């Protein structure tokens, strides 16, 4: 993967916490729900919200948020289960390996890492499978390589 990747980074821990709380409360503007926001919220949920079972609740949280800003969750847009679950696995792996302890530093290191790239799930999935309706609607196992 040789394309240039320049993620939008976070300055303060409080910005990430506000993003996560905004997701939970369906109080974010739609344009704030970027790739970087997805990953920041995932890391925040996994590391600072032990009261939330991310594996059981992430689909509902994101679907509800999408609908709250006028989006839909159907066969072609909105929540994508396999991509989300791939990133949750990647964020867990990153958290287990990182030495960063401050929230913003962790999130920014994640965003700069291979896991933070927009094309990271394509290391494990063929494009055809990953962007299929089945993969959007529910988790499908990777067809190229297992998650690390």
Q: Can you characterise this structure?
A:
It contains 7 helices and no strands. It has helices at 13-25, 35-48, 54-68, 81-97, 103-112, 127-130, 133-137. The radius of gyration is 15 Å and the shape is globular.
Summarize it.
The protein has helices spanning 13-25, 35-48, 54-68, 81-97, 103-112, 127-130, 133-137. It has 148 residues and is mainly α.
What's the structural domain tally? 1
Radius of gyration: 15 Å
Overall morphology: globular
The percentage of residues in β strands lies in under 5%
Q: What percent of the residues sit in helical stretches (DSSP H or I)? A: 40-55%
* Rounded mean pLDDT score: 96
Order of helices and strands: HHHHHHH
| Count of DSSP H/I helices | 7
Strand segment tally: 0
Please outline the major beta sheet: none
Structural class: mainly alpha
* Straight-line N-to-C gap: 18 Å
């Amino acid at each position: 993967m040789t394309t240039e990747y320049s993620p939008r980074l976070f300055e303060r821990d409080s910005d990430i916490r506000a993003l996560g709380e905004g997701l939970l409360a369906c109080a974010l503007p739609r344009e704030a729900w970027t790739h970087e926001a997805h990953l920041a919220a995932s890391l925040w949920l996994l590391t600072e919200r032990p009261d939330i079972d991310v594996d059981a609740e992430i689909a509902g949280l994101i679907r509800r948020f999408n609908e709250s800003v006028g989006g839909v969750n159907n066969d072609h847009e909105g929540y994508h289960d396999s991509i989300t679950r791939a990133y949750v696995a990647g964020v867990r792996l990153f958290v287990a390996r990182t030495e960063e302890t401050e929230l913003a530093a962790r999130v920014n290191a994640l965003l700069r890492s291979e896991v933070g790239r927009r094309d990271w799930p394509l290391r494990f999935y063929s494009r055809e499978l990953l962007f299929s309706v089945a993969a959007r609607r529910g988790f499908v196992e990777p067809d190229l390589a297992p998650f690390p």
